[in-house]
Amino acid sequence: MSDILVMESLKDYIKVVTKLRDYVVHKSLRATSEELLQSNFLRLHRSYIISIANIKSIEGTIIEIANSKIPIGRSYSKPVLGRIFNHGDLED
Fold first, then answer.
1. What is the pLDDT of residue 23?
2. pTM passes above 0.70
3. Is residue 27 within 8 Å of 36, Cβ to Cβ?
4. Starting at the edge strand that comes first in sequence, how are the strands of the sheet with 68-71 ordered?
5. Contact, 67 vs 58, CB < 8 A?
6. Enclosing H/E stretch for 79
7. Residue range 33-53, pLDDT digits in tens
8. DSSP letter string, 14-74
9. Contact at 8 Å (CB) between 74 and 62?
10. Residue 44 class from Cβ within 10 Å (0-12 exposed, 13-18 middle, 19+ buried)?
11. Among 68, 19, 26, which residue's Cα sits nearest to residue 48?
């Protein structure tokens, strides 16, 4: 779990991006989000879940994790940014 950076919805599958490699799993993002520790992961778009501890930077409504730039969905923006800035695990 600590190696997971990003999970991306691909219809009936999800792409799990880890520090070492990517995996494609036959499962929905919704079902996966229900199984994850909510304190470590954050759904920030209808198509993405990220690891809070691996956020590199935030610029407007874009979050950078590893070499990926993930958009924050409009309806997720307020709770996501509030949760990130209250989390305390981000690097300066």
1. 96
2. yes
3. no
4. 55-59, 62-65, 68-71
5. no
6. helix 77-87
7. 888 877 899 999 999 999 999
8. EEEEESS-EEEESS-HHHHHHHS-TTTEEEEETTEEEEGGGEEEEETTEEEETTEEEEPPG
9. no
10. buried
11. 68
Strands 68-71 and 41-45, by their bridges, are unpaired
Residue written as token pair 């879940």: 49
Question: How long is the chain?
Answer: 92
Number of neighbours of residue 83 by Cβ within 10 angstroms: 15
Amino acid sitting at position 70: I
**C-alpha separations of 64 from 25, 59, 70 in Å:** 23, 8, 6
**Which two tokens mark 55?**
């956020």
